[in-house]
């Protein structure tokens, strides 16, 4: 039960992506829930057959480490330099609160997500990248505009998104990115 109470803290970890109404930014728990539901609904678009429940579990736990490590903004190159070390230390503490079998399972899911080496982790990572694109599009690029995000930054972050779902990546590019580029919400590269 201590772990169950501890992970409630995920609700306090703010992200840079606004909710679809643009009124406030989402938190990590909302992000995890949203991606899990998206996986349930969109798994048919995975490039490879996936274990849907495992993928949902991966998405629900992969950002728990941010309780200790904090959220590293997708385009924060300085923060990314220490992200792995911060998140590994957080995984040690958080998953270490669990009985050995649960510690092992959740840690293996977290490591699998981070590696991107399996069909489930590739699709989970695609959801982790497409969900904020969708919310940014719903808010007419509000967060992208606030941060002066360049097209090259978005494309670099999403360079492997198509490995999880080429159809969903194509949809996101055409419907979320290009309209916001045309509207000046995403900064074009010269």
Automatic annotation (TrEMBL):
Organism superkingdom: Bacteria
One GO MF term: 5'-deoxynucleotidase activity
Domain HD span(s) in chain numbering: 7-169
InterPro entries xrefs: HD_domain, YfbR/HDDC2
GO cellular component: cytoplasm
Protein name: HD domain-containing protein
Any matching Pfam family: HD_3
Keyword terms: Hydrolase, Metal-binding
